[in-house]
Design brief:
The complex is a heterodimer of chains A (283) and B (554). Chain A has 283 residues and is mainly α. Chain A has a single domain (20-41, 72-278), classed as MetI-like (MetI-like fold, Orthogonal Bundle). Chain A contains eleven helices and no strands. Chain A has helices at 13-19, 21-38, 40-43, 75-111, 113-128, 131-142, 146-172, 176-183, 188-224, 236-242, 251-278. In chain A, helix 2 packs across helix 11, helix 4 packs parallel to helix 7 and helix 4 packs parallel to helix 11. Chain B is an alpha/beta fold and 554 residues long. Chain B folds into two domains: 34-56 and 85-257, Rossmann fold; 276-522, Rossmann fold, CATH 3.40.50.300. Chain B has helices spanning 47-54, 82-88, 100-103, 110-122, 126-139, 145-150, 158-171, 188-205, 216-222, 240-245, 250-258, 329-336, 358-368, 386-397, 405-415, 432-445, 462-479, 490-496, 514-519, 524-531; strands spanning 3-15, 20-32, 36-40, 63-72, 75-76, 93-96, 176-180, 208-213, 225-230, 233-239, 281-293, 300-313, 318-322, 344-349, 352-353, 369-372, 450-454, 482-487, 499-504, 507-513. In chain B, the strands form four sheets. Chain B has a six-stranded mixed sheet with strand order 6-7-8-3-9-10, sandwiched between helices. A six-stranded mixed sheet of chain B has the order 16-17-18-13-19-20, sandwiched between helices. Chain B has a four-stranded antiparallel sheet with strand order 2-1-4-5, with helices on one face. In chain B, helix 14 (386-397) packs across helix 15 (405-415). The longest helix of chain B is centred in the middle third of the chain and has 18 residues, at 188-205. Chain B is globular, with a radius of gyration of 26 Å. Classes of the chains: A mainly alpha (283), B alpha/beta (554). The interface between A and B is medium-sized, with 20 and 32 residues.
Chain lengths: 283, 554
């Protein structure tokens, strides 16, 4: 028996992509950023944290295509190295909420009753606080830094996934194939994770993409407030924050990292829409 | 009889940049004044599309009317512009559909929906229109028309909603009524009432009716002429008695032979001796109640789905459980298999009492009993191939050694008459009948002593139904399987089962040998159910009571 993953994209998918420009552009943007992140040491012309007091605030030129910042650091190199951090933020910042939320949503939806009530009340409590305020307080308690950001994301971000998955599971568990699985003596965990979950996942996989955009912007916002990535590490949000004092004289320091954030976010959105079509979520 | 509607050489094709498919080819038929024409065919044969084409409501812009003419009262309407069609639709040709719930506006009173048509097409004033609406509701059999006018669709049962839809269609006083599977979603007794209503309306108003259905029994008892459709063509049409008695096309013969109302003499159900055998299922005074409503401030109430049900099922028997929707048939099946909590009473499986030793009994039930479901697509996990689905059962049951699983999957597919290469296919690439066979193969993978089939042929076309019934009969005869067959279709049960249990409102009203019950039912309810079975014999009146002579087609 050939075992296929839950989402078999079928062997025709190169042709499938070429027929769908949204998917192609989205995947292209993401692939571009992944590649420059991997090959940052090779493609970046300068060391991203090397200061050069003689070359402060230089506008874009042949030597520095994106110009230099107030410490004379090459903005292009910093944007390239920043891709490493920002992709990591998007990936880890989505992965843990997704995993935690999926498991909790599945269990709550499947067992219902007390378990469901308990988890859903926790969700309500978290929802009652503004998202950023909650994030900021958790990070302040844990101390500034990226790992605190990830922990805060995991503690707060799972609720969307839990609610999405739970709603799907509630529908699926009344369907005949689920009753059939029970009548055939399959264990509960098998019914939950092998029969119901793969059928419930499509919606939240699409949400992963739009969530990645939000997490990316959150990460940038937290870093901007000085609670995330610490200087002199190159991260797009930090770069925008540091350069705000110079925005009237040196627009290039904020523009290019800002563009990078927007472009990557745009790529994720396109990919999310395309995945929605692919998995039939919009039907 | 004057011809009212004449369709000649009608062809419709689906066309987009990728492909072209012929959906209707060269359709010829005519409809006389006051005539009822039955359009019969399986799903996908083009019946509904044909009627939509006639009124210019093609469901997609990729459909093209390539050739042909539609003449209504000697006026060509096939290529009429939208403005012209508005005059025809509703006013000259009214339509009713299978699912009244989705075709009635849920937030508009029934009365307003009728009045709307009266004012637009007949130009009546508000009070006149209301008066007329009341009289129409009376004609379609509303017991209290004045109250009916003020009610919303959700306040009525399915049968009454269908009557309301007929009333709306009649409001504009059309000459032709197109009824697209008007009774498919209804219980048999309600179906009989609606069909009688259509015939009465024909007699009262001289209405011409095109009745679309997949059930040859429905047309045999109501229509004057029958047209049989398949693959977008009319394969045969003619006066109903002639067509039924002497079908020309092979497909018509197959349809007639598949109709469950024909008692199948060569396949009489087996009779079993069961003097001293222990029953495989025994149910005593079983109660199942579901909580409804209830909340923080409301008192919780219970809906009793089963009330003091007792029955015994013996090994090797084929038992039918029949009843209308909501009678508790499925709940009973699920309670016997331990899939629904039991509120009171006892359920015993082969000596183990489910209510006392729950875990042990469940374990035995899971390996000795299996279930087949109504909706074949919904009953299979859409992400698994058929092979994976069956292999998973074999692995969980643990009786087949891992290296034999592949072979065993093949054998099971053989048993249900599917090619072995179906193991690699997923449900969505298969037809309903094929999915149902796969569902039966999965049930058989357990190697069960009992199979409970819950309305397992209700969603299938008649010819496929007949094949699945044959498969069950074959399995019961060759493997000694005990079969509990739940159905609302009594005709199927009569052909397949030796014993029948009739349920109504959560109780067993009657049980006994199939032959006896069908020949001489003791309860009125059973008699009404049996009388309501659509019969392929055109001279048998619908609903058991004779149709008055003046309503008989001349």
């Amino acid at each position: 028996m050939i075992r296929r993953s839950a989402l078999s994209l079928a062997p025709t998918w190169p042709r499938y992509i070429s027929r769908r420009p949204m998917l192609a552009v989205g995947a292209g943007i993401l692939a571009f950023f992944v590649l420059i992140a991997i090959f940052a040491p090779i493609v970046a012309p300068f060391d991203p944290i090397l200061q050069d007091p003689k070359a402060r605030l230089q506008p874009p030129s042949f030597a520095h295509p994106f110009g230099t910042d107030n410490f004379g650091r090459d903005v292009l190199s910093r944007v390239i190295w920043g891709a490493r951090i920002d992709l990591q933020i998007a990936l880890i910042g989505v992965l843990f909420p997704f995993l935690i939320g999926t498991v909790i949503g599945t269990v709550a939806g499947f067992f219902g009753k007390t378990i469901d009530t308990v988890f859903m009340r926790i969700v309500d409590i978290i929802l009652a606080f503004p998202f950023l305020v909650l994030m900021l307080s958790i990070i302040t308690i844990l101390g500034p830094g990226l790992s605190s950001f990830y922990i805060a994301m995991a503690l707060v971000g799972w609720i969307s996934y839990a609610r999405l998955i739970r709603a799907q599971i509630l529908v699926l568990k009344t369907q005949d194939f689920s009753v059939a699985a029970e009548s055939l003596g399959f264990s509960r965990s098998r019914i939950m994770f092998r029969h119901l979950l793969p059928n419930a996942l499509a919606g939240s996989l699409v949400f992963v993409m739009s969530d990645a955009v939000l997490v990316l912007l959150n990460g940038a916002a937290i870093s901007y407030l000085g609670l995330g990535v610490q200087p002199p590490t190159a991260e797009w949000g930090v770069m925008v924050a540091e350069a705000q004092g110079f925005i009237t004289q040196a627009w290039w320091i904020t523009l290019f990292p800002g563009l990078a954030i927007v472009t990557l976010a745009f790529g994720f959105s396109l990919l999310g829409d395309a995945m929605g079509d692919l998995l039939g979520v919009h039907e | 009889m004057t011809t009212l509607l004449e369709v000649r050489g009608l062809s419709v094709a689906f066309r987009d940049h990728a492909e072209e498919r012929q959906l209707l080819s060269d359709i010829d038929f005519s409809l006389g004044k006051g005539e009822i024409l039955g359009l019969v065919g399986e799903s996908g044969s083009g019946k509904s599309l044909l009627c939509r084409t006639i009124v210019g409501l093609m469901p997609s812009s990729k459909l093209h009317l390539d050739a042909g003419s539609v003449r209504l009262d000697d006026e060509e309407i096939a290529r009429l512009p939208e403005a012209g069609m508005l005059r025809i639709r509703g006013k000259k040709i009214g339509m009713i559909f299978q699912n009244p719930t989705s075709h009635l506006d849920p937030v508009m009173r029934i009365g307003d929906q009728i009045v709307e048509g009266l004012r637009f097409h007949r130009g009546l004033g508000r009070t006149e229109a209301l008066e007329e609406a009341r009289s129409i509701l009376g004609q379609v059999g509303f017991p209290d028309p004045a109250r009916g006018l003020k009610s919303y669709a959700h306040e009525f049962s399915g049968g009454m909603r269908q009557r309301a839809m007929i009333a709306i269609a009649l409001a504009c006083d059309p000459e032709i009524l197109i009824a697209d599977e008007p009774t498919t979603a209804l219980d048999v007794t309600i179906q009989a009432q609606i069909l009688k209503l259509l015939m009465d309306l024909r007699a009262m108003r001289g209405l011409s009716i095109i009745l679309i259905t997949h059930d040859l029994g429905v047309v045999a008892q109501t229509c004057d002429r029958i047209a049989v459709m398949r693959h977008g063509r009319i394969v045969e049409q003619g006066e109903k008695r002639q067509l039924l008695a002497n079908p020309q096309a092979a497909y018509t013969r197959e349809l007639i032979a598949s109709h469950p109302s024909l008692p199948d003499e060569e396949h009489r159900p087996l009779e079993h001796e069961r003097s001293h055998v222990r029953p495989i299922f025994e149910v005593d005074d079983l109660d199942v109640a579901f909580p409804i409503g209830g909340g923080l401030f409301r008192k919780r109430r219970d809906f009793r789905a089963l009330k003091r049900v007792s029955l015994q099922i013996f090994p090797g028997e084929t038992v039918g459980i029949v009843g209308e929707s909501g009678s508790g048939k499925s709940t009973l099946a699920r309670a016997m298999l331990g899939l629904t909590p039991i509120s009171a009473g006892h359920a015993t499986f082969d000596g183990s009492v489910l209510t006392l030793e729950r875990e042990a009994t469940l374990k035995r039930l899971r390996s000795e009993a299996a279930m087949v479901f109504q909706d074949p697509f919904n009953a299979l996990n859409p992400r698994f191939t058929i092979g994976e689905t069956i292999a998973e059962v074999l692995r969980t049951q643990g009786e087949t050694p891992p290296e034999r699983i592949r072979e065993r999957v093949g054998e099971l597919l053989d048993m249900v008459g599917l090619e072995r290469n179906f193991a690699g296919r997923k449900p969505r690439s298969m037809s309903g009948g094929q999915c149902q066979r796969a569902g039966i193969a999965r049930a058989l993978a357990v190697n069960p002593r009992v199979i409970i089939a819950d309305e397992c042929v209700a969603a299938l076309d008649v010819t496929i139904q007949a094949q699945i019934i044959d498969l069950f009969r074959h399995l019961a005869e060759t493997t000694g399987l005990t079969l509990v067959f739940i159905a609302h279709d009594l005709a199927i049960v009569r052909n397949l089962c030796e014993r029948v249990i009739v349920m109504h409102h959560g109780q067993i009203v009657e049980e006994g040998q199939c032959d006896e019950i069908f020949r001489s039912p003791r309860e009125d309810y059973t008699a009404a159910l049996i009388a309501a079975i659509p019969d392929i014999d055109p001279d048998r009146p619908i609903g058991g009571t004779a149709v008055p002579a003046e309503l008989q087609p001349a």
